[in-house]
Write a structure and sequence with these properties.
This protein is an alpha/beta fold. It has a single domain, classed as Rossmann fold. It is about 30% helix and about 30% strand. It is built from six helices and nine strands; from the N terminus they run H-E-E-H-H-E-H-E-E-E-H-E-E-E-H. The strands form two sheets. The protein has a six-stranded mixed beta sheet, sandwiched between helices. Strands 1-2-9 form a three-stranded antiparallel beta sheet. Helix 3 crosses helix 4. The chain is globular, with a radius of gyration of 17 Å. It starts with a helix and ends in a 10-residue tail after the last helix.
């Protein structure tokens, strides 16, 4: 599907919003991705999932891991589309030492030492959740073989140290709150995930 078709899916499902938003990273942005709106429509989401599965299959993973919440359903869906039959798990946030953010894989779903793991996420803006999930995979003794996302919003200069694939690359502004021009203009701040 061409980029216009992917964008149409996001707009028509309400997954892409424009305005002034508090992003999950704590930054402010002019676009917000609520990809759960895309995922609630399996017919619309299936081509996206198949694209990630094609990328994943090329890496021969034993397991697909997604950070909670956006990557939970996605990890299962991508694994279910892969002929090689990888398992699906998710990483969830826990409070680390000194209040540091971290993720763990538990509930009996930890990768085995040496397993090859593809980390998937719905939208990536700063890469923070993805890298926390990567750390959880590595902590379990497994090998991260790649990262796949539905929508990649990262700045051009932010690199992930693994093979990375996105169905759609959609750059969008992400400002520190103190530097946000939308705040300076008095545009009301919305928190769609609240």
């Amino acid at each position: 599907m061409a980029e216009a078709g992917w964008l149409a899916d996001l707009i028509e499902t309400g997954a892409l919003m424009e305005g002034h938003f508090l992003l999950t990273s704590g930054r402010h942005g002019d676009r917000f991705m609520l990809l759960s709106k895309l995922m609630e429509d399996p017919g619309r989401a299936r081509p996206w999932i198949r694209e990630l599965a094609r990328f994943g299959e090329s890496l021969s993973p034993d397991r697909i891991v997604g950070p909670a919440m956006g990557g939970v359903i996605l990890a299962w869906a991508v694994a279910s589309e892969m002929p090689s039959g990888p398992k699906a798990s998710f990483a969830e946030k826990v409070e680390g030492q000194g209040g540091q953010k971290r993720m763990v894989i538990r509930r009996g779903l930890r990768p085995l030492p040496g397993e090859r793991v593809l980390v998937v996420e719905d939208a990536m803006t700063t890469g923070g959740s993805v890298m926390l999930a990567v750390d959880a995979v590595r902590e379990a003794g497994a090998e991260v073989v790649g990262v796949g996302v539905l929508v990649d919003r990262r700045p051009e200069d932010f690199r992930i140290p693994y093979p990375t694939f996105s169905v759609l690359r959609l750059l969008a502004a992400a400002y520190r709150a103190a530097d946000c021009p939308l705040c300076a203009e008095g545009v009301p701040l919305a928190t769609p995930k609240a």
